[in-house]
């Protein structure tokens, strides 16, 4: 079984370094001329899949925007995941789960077990109950060739109060997370399957990402203010492992399939040029 890191490296090589979020919030549905209901959700999600799933490396549905419609919205999410993967895109499900013991194991089973209708190629998780609490997700991901992206340095203004706090050994909380994930990925080739989420808008923070040996998801490009040129300042020598993530900058081009494809192609070209 191929690891997620291997599959991601190949997808980025073949399709370019781009992750596109699928974030059907009410304002974007309205911008597309769609109703804020399950029918609008389904039309939106399936249009994005039809436009992009056969050409971008990764699609990243934000689970909350589907969950807000209840079971029918979750059914649309299941369909979106299934159709995206069938078209060749890797699916990173943005759920940011984090818990302990059997509950974390259940979350992992829901999203990383191929028998589940919500099974994705990778998920996002929160480490703030301790990185060790995420072990059930790491274990199941390894079993099934899936990936896990751990929040580390986020771009929201509330983040630094926790993430930059200094522990007893002098490291920041974020650096302890980075270092623990580096150990998980040690020796993986060509790339580990446990990644980090590091916002593209945060600038130079003084954190050391050089030993992570895993994918670095960089949200915040486009409408949130970051540009591909910012990536080298944030990631330095680790820039080769960066997966730039766009959402509104690409999705705002819809509902035209041709315009969505053109926006994604521009973003891919800009990221290729910036990352080298």
From TrEMBL:
Pathway(s): Pyrimidine metabolism; UMP biosynthesis via de novo pathway; UMP from orotate: step 2/2
Segments forming domain Orotidine 5'-phosphate decarboxylase: 17-263
Keyword Lyase: yes
Pfam family of the protein (one): OMPdecase
GO biological process: 'de novo' pyrimidine nucleobase biosynthetic process; 'de novo' UMP biosynthetic process
Annotated keywords: Decarboxylase, Lyase, Pyrimidine biosynthesis
EC class: lyase
Name used for this protein in its record: Orotidine 5'-phosphate decarboxylase
Provenance organism: Krasilnikovia cinnamomea
Lineage of the species this protein comes from: Bacteria, Bacillati, Actinomycetota, Actinomycetes, Micromonosporales
